[in-house]
Write a structure and sequence with these properties.
Low-confidence stretches: none
Strand content: 5-15%
CATH architecture of the largest domain: 3-Layer(aba) Sandwich
Distance between the termini: 19 Å
CATH superfamily of the largest domain: HAD superfamily/HAD-like
Order of helices and strands: EHHHHHEHEHEHEEH
Largest sheet: 6 strands, parallel
Shape: globular
CATH topology of the largest domain: Rossmann fold
Structural class: alpha/beta
CATH class of the largest domain: Alpha Beta
Mean pLDDT: 95
Number of helices: 9
Length: 227
């Protein structure tokens, strides 16, 4: 029996295009000014981490290279999160979730399922995104948020850590993602898994795992509350 649903974000509950075409360009435009802030301790610490790992290089250039290569580096995620906070809080950004997502999440929560998020985006960024959607603040639906501080999403040990953190048998946790390697890692850790194959994102079906086109289909396939 599934007692907790663990959700990826990009390509699962949020179109990849929103991240690629809206959030990333916004961060890229705002990052140069943010990197000049020597009073914000979070910025100072992130910049110091970059300098430590890339001595002699311009931290901003390192970040720009990371963004171009889609490197999920922790300092970059932290800095992007700061830019997104401003954008979400001033109303410039608003999360464009798939339309099936808010009703399904609410139905699952009201039906007694526990919900959590595991994304490469930082925990503050995850909360910002779900806190500023067209359907309102959805963060109260989630009991836990996990990011790369838990470990890489293609590493089975990360899912073992999450299993321990939520205090459930692994097979009672359903992990939803569009990425095959993530699903494989979660499956190795004993979790139940399902790939979201979103037509809009052009998701390539991954062999060896259950698949669904949206969260409504997930509900039917796994006997979860239906919106």
């Amino acid at each position: 029996m599934i007692r907790l649903v663990l959700l990826d974000i990009e390509g699962t509950t949020l179109p990849i295009s929103f991240v690629r075409d809206v959030m990333f360009p916004y961060a890229a435009k705002a990052l140069p000014a943010l990197m000049q802030d020597h009073t914000n301790p979070t910025v100072v610490a992130a910049r110091a981490d970059i300098v430590m790992d890339h001595p002699g290089q311009d931290p901003l250039k390192v970040c720009e290279d990371w963004m171009k290569a889609d490197v999920k580096a922790a300092p970059l995620k932290t800095l992007q999160g700061l830019t997104w906070r401003q954008g979400f809080e001033d109303g410039t950004l608003q999360a464009d979730l798939y339309p099936d997502v808010p009703p399904a999440l609410k139905a699952w929560s009201e039906g007694g399922l526990r919900l959590a998020v595991y994304s490469s985006g930082s925990i503050p960024s995850q909360k910002l995104l779900y806190g500023h959607t067209a359907q309102g603040d959805l963060t109260p639906l989630f009991e836990d948020f996990f990011d790369l501080s838990t470990g890489g999403k293609k590493d089975a040990a990360s899912y073992e850590k999450i299993t321990a953190a939520v205090g459930l048998p692994a097979d009672e946790i359903l992990f939803l993602s569009d990425i095959g390697a993530e699903l494989d890692a979660a499956q190795r850790a004993g979790m139940t898994v399902c790939q979201l194959v979103r037509e809009r994102d052009g998701t390539v079906p991954h062999p060896g795992v259950a698949q669904a086109p949206d969260l409504n289909a997930v509900s039917v396939q796994f006997g979860l509350p239906v919106a």
